[in-house]
Amino acid sequence: MIPSSSSSVSWLQRFLVAAWFLGCGCLQGLSAASTVKVNISRVEDAVNFHIYYGQTFKVIKNAIDTRSYLLIQDNSRMASRTKYCTSRIKSFIIPLSNYSVDAELFPVSFFELLGLLGSLKGITADSVASPCVLNLCEGGGAEMINKSNPQQFQQFSANFISNTDLAQACNFASFAPTSESLPLQRAEWIKYLGVYANLEYKANQVYNAVKENYLCLARVAASKASSVKPTVAWMEYNDNIWSFTTETLKMKYVEDAGGENVDESIGKITYNTSNPDDLEQLHAILCTVDVVIDGTNTFDPTGYTMSTFVENVGVADTSCFAFLANQSLWRYDKRLQNASNTLDWFDGAVSQPQLVLADLTEALFPTGNYTTTYFRNLAKEESVVNITADMCDRDTSTALDPTIIPCS
Ligand SMILES: *[C@@H]1O[C@H](CO)[C@@H](O)[C@H](O)[C@H]1NC(C)=O
Ligand SMILES: *[C@@H]1O[C@H](CO)[C@@H](O)[C@H](O)[C@H]1NC(C)=O
Ligand SMILES: *[C@@H]1O[C@H](CO)[C@@H](O)[C@H](O)[C@H]1NC(C)=O
Ligand SMILES: *[C@@H]1O[C@H](CO)[C@@H](O)[C@H](O)[C@H]1NC(C)=O
Ligand SMILES: *[C@@H]1O[C@H](CO)[C@@H](O)[C@H](O)[C@H]1NC(C)=O
Ligand SMILES: *[C@@H]1O[C@H](CO)[C@@H](O)[C@H](O)[C@H]1NC(C)=O
Ligand SMILES: *[C@@H]1O[C@H](CO)[C@@H](O)[C@H](O)[C@H]1NC(C)=O
Ligand SMILES: *[C@@H]1O[C@H](CO)[C@@H](O)[C@H](O)[C@H]1NC(C)=O
Q: Which N-terminal stretch is annotated as signal sequence (predicted)?
């Protein structure tokens, strides 16, 4: 039925097919029956990966690169006998002794939450927003790898990449939390990394804490929104065009924070500020919203102020903009590693969505006594927080505890 070049491949394929049919239930039984009790992770929310357990191995199916990762326990007989590196299956010996990461837009914070920075030995760039990873880069704990010399990756047990289009060597493993459309689905990718380190217990613990806190904050926000939902415009400016976001992730955050997305009430998403009719319409829409989130990309977040926004909107008379009168104009670039223009929004915010939700709830229903993590209020001239290596406040090999926001 399935073409195969060797009997062991066909065995694995049959196993995977069986796993698909039977779901995780049988395999959980299998592992429970084994002499070594293992902790397992179950995927509850994410849609782009699945985990299956055998007695001495695990299989991750990654829907983004369509590969199966066979993770073999280092103390098993299979470990010395089996190696796969095909377009469909790759094998790794676990727990990994060390790893490297392709740091471009890679959320290293997932490794921090698992306490795995101690075995991060290589990195392709210092464009990271984590003070402790910067510390490893600057202190030499993680070697800088030149991506043009791919053989440099060979010395690591695994090289994690987030760009699945990259040419893949045998030890490359793709990690794609941002392929998911919803905040909690992204955060659940901590389980994907946990399986490579036999840290399922820790990964489950972190995810459960994050999820419980997120859902609690969403319930509180919903009760605040029971009378009137503030209307939120999450918008970006690029090359004279303003567009309102249609991204599921951002719209979900706004809804969960008790807001209503403006795009549900307007017919058109993009507005060309060089076109007088568009400009007039944009002006009118902005007169109806309560909160604006300006997600415009810039090379200089530090220099992006309220007047930058007003200039980009290009209307002289802003007197009807209630979000300005009410000081509710925000950007998600508060935590910034200036030298490489890297925002923690693309890192820490991916693994801890409860912090994003808490920020947004404060933006929509200000209490004045909550300090936001990722969002800064341009209307209050709030400035960026420059992330530097000396802000690392713990031994890099200890786990970063997720921040749980008081919620009742
Ligand atoms: C799961 O892991 C935790 C922490 O490592 C340990 O305390 C617990 O006994 C483990 N449970 C099983 C069933 O192995
Ligand atoms: C990386 O390697 C390439 C090819 O060997 C070389 O041309 C380039 O200068 C190197 N870059 C850095 C930053 O060392
Ligand atoms: C990573 O671990 C492997 C396997 O234990 C080892 O051979 C290699 O030298 C280690 N690499 C580094 C950079 O520590
Ligand atoms: C925006 O409008 C100007 C003036 O009409 C036009 O020249 C330009 O091509 C438009 N831009 C886009 C992206 O449509
Ligand atoms: C400002 O926000 C408050 C609630 O936070 C609201 O009651 C008020 O109407 C808003 N003012 C304007 C001008 O929108
Ligand atoms: C911060 O980034 C800007 C833009 O890249 C650059 O001009 C400035 O020199 C940087 N400042 C520091 C202290 O690195
Ligand atoms: C923050 O303010 C709200 C209302 O203004 C109040 O109910 C709450 O107790 C305050 N929280 C803290 C931690 O001070
Ligand atoms: C952050 O760094 C920029 C330049 O790199 C500087 O202009 C700004 O004042 C710094 N902000 C803070 C809060 O230190």
A: 1-32
Q: Which residue has the higher pLDDT, 126 or 407?
A: 407
Q: Is 203 left (phi over 0), alpha (psi -120 to 50) or beta?
A: alpha
Question: 254: CA distance to ligand 7 center in Å?
Answer: 22
CA 309, 248, 185, 160 torsion-angle sign: negative
Helix 353-364, helix 248-256: angle, nearest 10: 60
271 alpha carbon to ligand 4 midpoint, in Å?
10
φ, ψ for residue 349, nearest 5 deg = -70, -20
- Give the C-alpha separation, 124 to 70, whole Å: 25
**37 CB near ligand 1 (under 6 Å):** yes
Single pTM value for the model: 0.89
State phi, psi for 334 to the nearest 5 degrees.
-65, -45
- Closest listed residue to residue 188, CA positions, set 77, 113, 266: 113
Atom number, ligand 7, closest to the C-alpha of residue 369: 1
pLDDT at 229: 95
The third-level CATH classification (topology) of the domain covering 226-391 is Rossmann fold (3.40.50)
Tens digit of pLDDT for each residue in 324-352? 999 999 999 999 998 889 999 999 999 99
Domain range summary for the chain, segments of one domain joined by +: 1-94, 226-391
Residue count of the chain, please give it.
408
- Ligand 3 atom nearest 143 alpha carbon: 13
Q: How far apart are CA 193 and CA 134, in angstroms?
A: 21
Q: What is the mean pLDDT of residues 74-95?
A: 94
Euclidean distance between CA atoms 81 and 341, whole angstroms? 46
Return the pLDDT at 38. Answer: 55
Q: How far is the CA of 148 from the centre of ligand 2 (A)?
A: 6
List the strands of the sheet with 335-337, edge to edge: 342-343, 335-337, 385-386
| DSSP output for 232-290 | EEEEEEETTEEEE---HHHHHHHHHTT-EEGGGG-S-SEEETTSHHHHHHHHHHHTT-S
Measured in Å, residue 44 CA sits from the centre of ligand 1 at 20
Counting from 1 in the atom list of ligand 4, the atom nearest the Cα of 272 is 1
* Predicted pLDDT of residue 267: 81
